[in-house]
Amino acid sequence: MPPVSSDALPSVAEVIEAALPRARWFAGKGRAAHVRALVPLPWLTDDELPAVRFEIAEVVDPVAPEWVEHYLVPLCYRSAADPLGPGLGVAAHAALGAVAVHDASADPYAHDVLLGFVARSRDVVEGTNRLQCRVLDTSRLRPGLPARRFGGEQSNTSVMYASIAMLKFFRRLEFGGENLDIEIHRELADGPARGRLAGLMSWLTAEWIDSDHQVRSADLGMLVDQVPNAADGWDLAVASVVDGTDFTAYATELGHALREVHAGLAEAFGTTTLPGAEQSATMRRRLVDAIPEVDELTPLHGALDSRLAWLGDIDHTVQRIHGDFHLGQVLLARSGPNPGWRIIDFEGEPLKPLAERRAPDTVWRDVAGLLRSFDYAGAFATRQEGVQPESAAAWVAACREAFLLAYAGHPLTSEEHHILQAYQIDKAIYECRYEKRNRPEWLPIPLAALASVAAESLATPVAGSTEQLATPVAGEPNASEGENHGR
């Protein structure tokens, strides 16, 4: 098809720009987002329709020029008259003419092309831009596997191939090191935690020149084994609260699973010691930084700060951790040779910079994350599903106790409790900022937890207790947990 230049058709960049506010993975909602440039990577097909390739969208905010983000946009270009429809929109493409622009993660033709590309090692260069696929083991793949886009994600996009593999795209690209999810899956493939993670098959990296003439490189995605007959941990937990069933066996197994993964991370990346004063100062600074954004924290500041200051007297053993551990980050394999919990998504809390997420931390941060997640599950079931508050509170307490005992192997000492409580405070402060920005109607969930702990005395007996920092469920708002923290 000859090139088309028509004032009646928008450019591909303009089509992408119009689609951004509707994309679940776009982190700049509410901004006056503008696609400054759309950088093409090498074609995965011949440059004839339909044609597939990855492109990098440079997104800026004209009102706040210091804000620049880079997003992976996998595209499939089809004829403007294709029966599949206009996709994201019809645009004028400099080389292909009038085209329908489709998201490749939802396009059946692109599914086959993508699978073929990630099935073997590649190193493709066009001009100054490079696309690589690095393979560990893709022997189970075959052409023509049925595929579907997974609909449950927010910050990433995944394509499921039959019951064999999952191709996960990292939408908001980060610079300054290897993607944490890829790195950890690769390093833990042969260690004590290998049965708790999906097997890594291959991964994609790219290098390109951006519109500021800077050389950029980033990981674009990874192909992993699909968890057989998987059940989502959040869905299982909420159903258990609603049905009034015992979840403690699952909570116990989650404690064992997290301990095994922590052991694998320590073996793969090592451990070190972090002065307690440094850790305490970081948490106290995060509390202060949160107050201008969440002014409801102001009356709680003194009590919470004193709890965080207590950490200053303890030096911590630190290591690589999950960093964003909650019920939405675990899948239950209900069949296959190794049934049980799998832990997923090792990218850490999305509001934190990459360097901070890669830095060693104490294992108690992950423990605190799951305890807060049990709290969210109880709160959700109370308001959204009509569960009695007393029933939900008993469910939360039982799950917290079973999980903690399984993870630690003993009732917590007073020192362990105070460390864990500080990390739960820090996690709830993070939740407050997230909810204020994204779901203000959910803000009372972490606020109620923080108000509860602020009212307690440091001298409260805590050995073996699991009640601290669990939200009083009766006061929870109507909420549905998301992927970024409690869920």
List the helices and strands and how they pair.
Elements: H1 12-19, E1 34-43, E2 51-60, E3 68-79, E4 89-93, E5 97-103, H2 108-118, E6 122-126, E7 129-135, E8 147-149, E9 156-161, E10 165-170, H3 180-187, E11 200-209, E12 215-225, E13 230-232, H4 233-243, H5 248-269, E14 271-274, H6 276-290, H7 301-309, E15 316-319, E16 330-333, E17 340-343, H8 354-358, H9 364-384, H10 389-408, H11 414-438, H12 444-454
Q: Order of strands across the biggest sheet?
A: 6-7-11-12-10-9-8
> How many domains would you count in the coordinates?
2
- The gyration radius over C-alpha positions equals 24 Å
Helix content: 25-40%
How large is the count of helical segments?
Answer: 12
CATH topology name of the largest domain: Aminoglycoside 3'-phosphotransferase, Chain: A, domain 2
How many angstroms separate the termini?
48 Å
**Second rung of CATH, namely the architecture of the largest domain:** Alpha-Beta Complex
Largest sheet: 7 strands, antiparallel
Look at the structure and give the mean pLDDT.
90
Order of helices and strands: HEEEEEHEEEEEHEEEHHEHHEEEHHHHH
List keywords for this structure.
487 residues; alpha+beta; Aminoglycoside 3'-phosphotransferase, Chain: A, domain 2; 2 domains; seven-stranded antiparallel β-sheet; five-stranded antiparallel β-sheet; 17 strands; disordered C terminus
